[in-house]
Amino acid sequence: MEYLRKQRNEMFEELQKAHAHFLLISLQSEHAKLHRERDNAVKQAEELREKLEEMAASILGAECFSEFSYSELEQATSNFDDSLKIGEGGYGSVYKGTLREKTVVIKKLNSQDMQGQKEFHKEMSALSKLRHPNLVNLIGTCSEAWALIYDFLPNGSLEDRLTCNDNTPPLTWQTRIRVAAEICSALNFLHSNDSLSVVHGGLKPTNILLDANFISKLSDFGICRLAQSNNSTTLYRCTHAMGNFVYMDPEFLASGEIIPL
């Protein structure tokens, strides 16, 4: 009986060793696979960045948006029904609607607030002059309602996806790397424009939106700074910082000088 017990224990130990060895080999294989996927994702992201910058350069300066009436926006949002409201802040409210058989987002700024009016003009001025695959697409405006109309992006914000809001699955590392490369491409495009440099001023996960294919779009240009290029490297001096301090450049907070490049 003792002999059988000893044999059983030895067999159990051998099985444990074999399982541990198999687990180690599996982990090493998975580690190597993830490294290959990461390298491929970085390579694809760099190729995509170069392609997007070429595309953006070819369509720079196009002003192609429509002017909508207030009644059209009322119809698109069922008179700005609260059930269609998808966002709200000090600037105003954001609604989802259907406009001319197209699903859109309507950003209705507070017409009674000077800041809302400033944001309307700044955002319209920036996005009417700039087109890039990773900037939100301004479809049109409505001066009566101080409203800006954009394409609807069904996958919400990067913040929503990083926090798995609504029980959505986490983004893959390949998607995360691609999104980072796309936003870098958009910022490089904004900063290096020869005729008009744009400093976004509010870069954060909530202002990065994702379309149906998880292509990222930089949004919310309400506090951006527009600056004509000149011989100086400092394009803009600001005495009152706006935006979320958590995401701000410490050098800008200290000096008030915006130097994008």
Automatic annotation (TrEMBL):
Q: What are the entry keywords?
A: ATP-binding, Coiled coil, Kinase, Nucleotide-binding, Serine/threonine-protein kinase, Transferase, Ubl conjugation pathway
- Binding positions (ATP): K108
Protein kinase domain spans which residues? 80-261
Which reaction does this chain catalyze? S-ubiquitinyl-[E2 ubiquitin-conjugating enzyme]-L-cysteine + [acceptor protein]-L-lysine = [E2 ubiquitin-conjugating enzyme]-L-cysteine + N(6)-ubiquitinyl-[acceptor protein]-L-lysine
User: What Enzyme Commission number does this protein have?
Assistant: 2.3.2.27
Q: Which InterPro entries match?
A: Kinase-like_dom_sf, Prot_kinase_dom, Protein_kinase_ATP_BS, Ser-Thr/Tyr_kinase_cat_dom, U-box_ubiquitin_ligases
Coiled-coil stretches: 24-62
Listed GO MF terms: ATP binding; protein serine/threonine kinase activity; ubiquitin protein ligase activity
Name the top EC class. Answer: transferase
**Top-level taxon:** Eukaryota
Q: What is this protein called?
A: RING-type E3 ubiquitin transferase
